[in-house]
Design goal:
Blueprint: H1 2-16, E1 44-46, E2 56-62, E3 68-75, E4 78-79, E5 82-83, E6 86-87, E7 98-99, H2 100-111, H3 141-151, E8 159-160, E9 163-165, E10 168-170, E11 175-176
Helix pairs in contact: 1-2
Length: about 180
């Protein structure tokens, strides 16, 4: 369930960002070393407690030419409010739990270079509430604009003007693909 939720979070940026960007998933392994800064091993860790209100934190390392070289994400099991109850299902989290997919999408955004948004509906808004559902997992216009500012906006590469069937041109409307 954790892996599926993480894959969904990654795909939100690939599908909804409309940016020149593709985030790949490297899979899991049995290496239990923790992410330790810029070691070219992007690591996702679960556990630990934080003394603030954070649910998770992404720590990125960047090269001198502005490319991300490493990003480690830690999802906490507790913060100063107490134990964090994570929910991993497709339906979204009930009112007493945190939606893992929403938080993972937010943290992957940080790995991509995104900062916090001042738009409460945005995935990159600086806080999250319990009970968020599927609507909160999708990119807001502010998220898409931000990722496009970093990586560039994808524009249609082909305009289909005529459709042919057996060599005969049929008049038609332009269709952008």
């Amino acid at each position: 369930a954790v892996e599926t939720a993480f894959l969904d979070a990654k795909d939100i940026w690939n599908i909804e960002g409309d940016a020149y960007l593709y985030v790949e998933y490297g899979g899991t392994n049995s290496d239990n070393r923790q992410g330790g800064g810029n070691n070219n091993q992007n690591t996702t860790k679960f556990g630990g407690w934080t003394g603030d209100a954070s649910l998770a934190v992404a720590t990125s390392s960047w090269t001198g030419n502005g490319k991300m070289s490493d990003c480690d994400i830690e999802f906490f099991k507790g913060n100063y409010y107490g134990q964090i109850r994570w929910h991993f299902e497709d339906s979204g989290a009930p009112n007493n739990m945190q939606d893992f997919r929403h938080t993972a999408t937010h943290e992957v955004g940080h790995c991509l270079g995104m900062g916090h948004s001042n738009k409460q509906q945005a995935v990159m808004y600086g806080s999250s509430t319990q009970g968020t559902g599927d609507d909160n997992r999708h990119l807001h216009d502010d998220d898409a604009t931000g990722i496009q500012e970093i990586y560039g906006e994808v524009t249609p590469a082909l305009a289909l003007v005529n459709v042919t069937q057996e060599g005969k041109a049929k008049p038609g409307k332009a269709l952008e693909l």
